[in-house]
Design a protein that fits this description.
Helix Hairpins, Heat Shock Protein 90, 3 domains, two-stranded antiparallel sheet, elongated
């Protein structure tokens, strides 16, 4: 708060003070008041007025400086009221009360939206669980039938199932911490579940599924990790090359502080310009436009879940050579099982 602007804002009050002082001075002169007394009265009068002016400035400066600094320092600006002390000057009290009412109204509105959003999420989750039943029935019917037409239907059912999973995990990722359980998880077992889920597509595309992973154990949630790896494998299957024998390979590397799962494929690869954007929401890139099967949501959800679980995910690729995704799990002694 600048003193010059404050004085300028008080211009009218200063004008009336000077005018009042001028008339008082004329009255004192009319009564032939002694010059020294006149000077003393004038000094006291001026000092008193400017003391009041300065005191008012200092009170306001402290309050508004604190307000500005707190607003700049907060990510959630609407919480600024929690950081302020109630001012001890009248117009500041009015401003504080107005902020309080605005904040209260906003919080009530946010609560209404949260309740509405939670109701919607609950409905979506319920709908997803209900739609999973006919999908499972269709899958079972497909296994009991044979023929190319049935295989084409089965492929579409698997795609529907994958998209339904994406919706489910996207909705849950908002509050993932309420749904996951971090514990020691065997990587080989999770990869096995992913292989079983994708076995028909792996056979149809004649893809070698190589798992060079022994009894490696990491701290994660098995259900969430299965979804993450499944999305990566689905992409590898989706973008196979027709001029080579396709491979999806799993390997592990370790350090003293972390374990990394490497998922490699020799598919069409990702253009250099697209690599830094593959985890962005709805980004399909050049490959997605060419093949027209991508929603751009799979890797976005994967990245989001990895952040929630405390895992790191990186991706490297060269066009027409390979794509490699690395999932890194930190080692934490706090979670280790005691013998």
């Amino acid at each position: 708060m600048k003193f010059g602007k404050y004085i300028k804002d008080k211009g009218l009050e200063i004008f009336w003070f000077l005018l009042s002082y001028f008339f008082i001075l004329l009255m004192l002169l009319a009564f032939k008041v002694n010059g020294e007394v006149l000077l003393g009265i004038s000094v006291v009068f001026v000092l008193l007025f400017f003391s009041l002016l300065l005191t008012g400035y200092l009170k306001r400066r402290n309050f508004y400086t604190s307000l500005i600094q707190n607003v700049k320092g907060l990510d959630k600006k609407y919480l600024v009221l929690e950081m302020l002390n109630k001012p001890n000057f009248y117009d500041g009290e009015l401003f504080y009360e107005i902020l309080y009412e605005i904040n209260k109204s906003m919080n009530e509105t946010i609560k209404q939206y949260e309740y509405s959003l939670n109701d919607f999420k609950e409905y979506v989750e319920l709908w997803i669980h209900e739609i999973k039943l006919p999908i499972a029935s269709l899958t079972l019917m497909e296994h009991n039938q044979k023929g190319k037409m049935v295989e084409r239907y089965a492929e579409q059912v698997r795609r529907i199932d994958d998209y339904v999973d994406q919706i489910l995990y996207f909705v849950r990722s908002e509050n993932a911490e309420k749904d996951y359980l971090i514990k020691e998880t065997n990587l080989q077992q999770v990869i096995k579940q992913v292989a079983l889920k994708n076995k028909d597509d792996l056979l149809a595309h004649d893809i070698q599924f190589i798992v060079d992973v022994q009894d490696e154990v990491v701290l994660t949630d098995a259900k969430w990790l299965e979804f993450i790896i499944n999305q990566i494998v689905s992409n590898s299957i989706k973008y196979v090359r027709s001029d080579v024998s396709s491979v999806i390979k799993f390997t592990v590397s370790k350090t003293k502080t972390q374990t990394s799962l490497h998922i490699y494929d020799n598919g069409i690869g990702i253009p250099l310009n697209d690599i830094h954007r593959v985890f962005e929401k709805t980004f399909t890139g050049e490959n997605g436009r060419k093949r027209g099967k991508s929603t751009g949501m799979g890797l976005y959800i994967v990245k989001r879940l990895c952040e929630k679980l405390g895992h790191k995910i990186t991706l490297s690729s060269v066009v027409n050579q390979y794509t490699e995704v690395v999932l890194t799990f930190a080692l934490n002694d706090f979670y280790k099982m005691k013998d």
